[in-house]
Amino acid sequence: MVSENRDQLAEALYKDLRRPAYEAHITEILPAEYEGGYMLQQMDTWLKPVSADTYHQPQHMLGDVKIHKAPLGVALMISAWNYPIRLPLMPLVGAIAAGNVVVLKPSEISVHSSRLLTELIEKYLDSRVVRVVNGGVEETTVLLKQKVDHMMYTGNGTVGRIIAKAAAEQLCKVSLELGGKSPALISGSVNQDHLSRVASRIVWGKYLNCGQTCIAVDYVMVENKAYERFLLSILEAVFAFYGKDSKKSPDYARIISERQFDRLKKLVENTKGNILTGKTDEWDRSTLFIPPVVVDDVGFDDSLMSEELFGPILPIIKVDSVDEGIKYIQKHDHPLSLYFFGDEKDASKVIANTRSGSCVINDVLMQGSVHGAPFGGVGPSGVGGYSGKASIDEFTHSRTVIKAKTDFPSESLESVRNPPYTGPGTEW
Ligand code: NAD
Aldehyde dehydrogenase domain location, by residue (predicted)? Predict the structure, then answer.
């Protein structure tokens, strides 16, 4: 389905987010396609019952104890608009492979992608296995009242709580793929040559899809020593990627809606930081254009630190030490992703002293492209994870199945459990 419709999918993404075709392919279309192929190749292995460890447990040694990956049943998947092709399709692949049937509710906000996805799924997939229901809050509220066996939601934490409550009503399994403020912490030990590499990685991951990526760097904390050089490197990378006039760049996407545009504008209007590039007079509501915004001298109490930005705004904060950055992260919600740039020793310290959905050292976003590792958050950034084998684990119940033997010699072993409890070893 995906390989036969690559161009159409890219076109829909362009219409929704003015997503450059190359970006559409590498971040959404190819990963969705790869996930399908990978799953087809591996699913028989991953779904095979595995023998349980009965080591040192003689009472089980003669039986057959297996763990089966059993389907949950009906999975309801409510998806988001920012990656409107990969976000529904990647978990869908795993849920079907695991033997479930799926009711998919794509985002009503990414209109073109969701419409195309609906058409394609109806054309290519068996309607006994996947049904698409389109709509917004009203329709989703009705769906949440239906009896299902699994609910999966991708989006913000406020709605995440509504979904968790609906799942609690039914006591069904729930997966929540949420967001939050994902930090990047930069050690002062990063040398000059390296800083420009660090900056170009951060700029790539931040402004891709106009900042509307759940694992994008939300804000950067830079140790004093590297601060000034880092600012210059960030600006250099922004202009190298998108030119002096990013509005003209064919490689720069747009904001999804006026609602998001207005939300971001208010945050930037209220900042006490120093806007180095991307002042609001360059913004254009009629075309949903927001240039790359870089804000320096941002305080922890700034408007830009009050909520997940989810747009092309990069606040940069000066910290005295890597420890100060770690402390700030510890005091706030576990982020979906955590990025650290620095040496091995500090990296180990960051990993050991923080919690986050994923952690990448010296790069950004790459965890989103590992099909063999779970993609998900922890605590306020999410519950559960998916991709490859992790999807099989997420969309199945690990069912313990024991096939006991009825013939000798298990009888003699069994007799020790029967009353009357009078033999040797029963004197407790
Ligand atoms: P959204 O508000 O569009 O919500 C997503 C889905 O929830 C849609 O299908 C929508 O119809 C439904 N929905 C909205 N309000 C609802 C309600 N009151 N009741 C029931 N259903 C409702 O999405 P959003 O919050 O704007 O998406 C952005 C957030 O999603 C960010 O926080 C981002 O970090 C996060 N995100 C996370 C991931 C991930 O994989 N962890 C991926 C993408 C986005």
Answer: 2-401
